Amino acid sequence: MYKIGHFVGGARIEGMSGRHSDIFNPATGEVQGKVALASADELNAAVENAKAAQPDWAATNPQKRARVMMKFVDLLHRDMDKLAEALSREHGKTLPDAKGDVIRGLEVAEFCIGAPHLLKGEFSEGAGPGIDIHSVRQPLGVVAGITPFNFPAMIPMWKFCPAIAAGNAFILKPSERDPSVPMMLAELMMEAGLPAGILNVVNGDKGAVDGILDHPDVHAVGFVGSTPIAEYVYTRACANGKRAQCFGGAKNHMLILPDADMDQAVDALVGAGYGAAGERCMAVSVAVPVGEETADRLMEKLTPRVENLKIAPYTAGDDADFGPLVTKEAHARVKGYVDKGVEEGAKLVVDGRDFSMQGYEDGYFIGGCLFDNVTKDMTIYKEEIFGPVLSVVRAKTYDEALDLAMTHEYGNGVAIYTRDGDAARDFASRINVGMVGINVPIPVPLAYYTFGGWKRSGFGDLNQHGPDAFRFYTKTKTITSRWPSGIKDGADFVIPTMG
Ligand code: NAD
To answer: What are the GO MF terms of this UniProt record (predicted)?
Structure first.
């Protein structure tokens, strides 16, 4: 049994609130640790600390700040196995997938090594007689990130790497379900040369989040989690005059046109639908074959693949497809959705509800589930399940399939499988979803592009990572200067124009 407190002022500290949350091992159902839940005073102390440290860090030249990111990348590689093991132990995902979680964060740290370039301003010489204009990007001060359980390495890094490389101090409020890795990341940043107080981890629940949202010295909030909380955080942060980018839930569709390579499409659906037990915001949860014949061919190939998914604890080796769900509540919720789907008339072709893992009967395992004949009005179509459950909605035409994805309330990711370039082009141009895959099932953009959903999958503007992250965590100052030569003319009472 281990205890996790907070990371403030460059070191781990104990939680003093007297409140804590259990950390479960999802494979066994056992409580393996306890994480402290911060009080308002503890959060305020972390912000104070960050505020005091930030000006010196902002004054450190960007190349030196970038060197911390360089070293951090090396340390992530050095500790990859340790990080992945800690991650799998609390989250439940397989070890190769846990490494992917770390690497997708590491890639953003690599991108942030380019901070000196990304922070360069603009300059216009001779914008008027003797007048130059230039703009600079300055850090905001203390900023925060509130992150979900499903990527406990990647998403914290998406938030703190650009913010810190841009010269801010950061308060990270990670998920209370899997808090070990965020604490390890903070230690690695210190080892990489980050001054104390620039990266702080405050563990907690709603209390800590509200403390961040209401704190006058926190100037920006980046959030990732479920849509109701994303909307809440966005509304409250904005009402308090902060910048906010809040990313929420998803229901990602994959269209399969009659000319698609069906083997490729089935591989894609199995990986993107069931990988990480479906606990990914970019998981494909709805497959939309176009035409009855396409749907029949798809079901014929897909069904045995779902029946034969390998489910195991992360300790069982690298060839498992996915592990348990994160909590008992998540398990009950996913099972409840499958029950509801049956009740509402969808055809449950593969039923994983009674899956039990020998030797791990108290773990939160559920088998892959596959529904056919799902319709638009069903709960399992409308809501995010966040489990290994794939719904097949049969569409008669391409336009009907497109309309399904267009009219769904979520707009995180979407994919189309086809050999027809014209259809793919039309789809990419018309679809109202933030990230589009063409014969690619999980179109997560690389670190030097930006990541963000549309509709109710994202609130606020400016996306995560890529150049947008540097815009989000800096403010622009524009300086107009004149160095006149000769004799002063005195005051000018007419507004100056550049004509
Ligand atoms: P969650 O909304 O329960 O929690 C996210 C964060 O909010 C956590 O830090 C949590 O402590 C905090 N929180 C929870 N309840 C709160 C409340 N009432 N008030 C204030 N703060 C609260 O989400 P989760 O279960 O950790 O993560 C899964 C969700 O995240 C899914 O909906 C998934 O789609 C989404 N997600 C989205 C993206 C994206 O980029 N769009 C990426 C990953 C996950």
So the answer is: methylmalonate-semialdehyde dehydrogenase (acylating, NAD) activity
Q: How remote is the CA of residue 456 from the centroid of ligand 1, in Å?
A: 14
pLDDT per residue as tens digits for the range 127-159: 998 899 999 999 999 999 999 999 999 999 999
Task: Kindly list the catalytic residues.
Answer: 281
Radius of gyration of the chain (CA): 25
Domain residues of the chain, as ranges? 2-248+457-479, 272-286+303-393+412-438
Cα atoms in the 13 Å half-sphere on the side-chain side of 86: 19
Q: Using DSSP bridges, classify how beta strands 11-13 and 20-25 pair: parallel, antiparallel or unpaired.
A: unpaired
The string of pLDDT tens digits covering residues 426-457 is 999 999 999 999 999 989 999 999 999 999 99
Tokens of 474: 């800096």
Does the beta carbon of 278 sit less than 6 angstroms from any atom of ligand 1?
no
Taking domain 2-248+457-479, whether its CATH number is 3.40.50.1820 is answered by no
- Where does 198-310 have alpha helices with state H? 206-214, 227-239, 262-274, 292-307
Ligand 1 pocket, residue 101 CB under 6 Å: no
> What SS3 class is residue 246?
strand
487 pLDDT higher than 60: no
Instruction: Please work out whether the CB of residue 386 comes within 6 Å of at least one atom of ligand 1.
Output: yes
Q: Tally Cβ neighbours within 10 Å of residue 422.
A: 8
341 alpha carbon – ligand 1 mean position (Å):
24
Decide whether any atom of ligand 1 lies within 6 Å of the 371 Cβ.
no
Give 486's pLDDT tier (boundaries 50, 70, 90). low
CA of 399 to the centre of ligand 1 (A): 33
Percent over 90 (pLDDT), the chain? 94
| Mean pLDDT to the nearest integer, 331-351 | 98
How many other CB atoms are there within 10 angstroms of residue 474's CB atom? 22
Residue pLDDT, tens place only, 202-216: 999 999 999 999 999
Using the atom order of ligand 1, give the atom closest to the CA of residue 173: 9
Q: Is 277 within 8 Å of 287 (Cβ atoms)? A: no
Q: When comparing pLDDT for 484 and 412, which is higher?
A: 412
Instruction: Could you please state the CATH topology (level 3) that the domain comprising 272-286+303-393+412-438 is classified under.
Output: Aldehyde Dehydrogenase; Chain A, domain 2 (3.40.309)
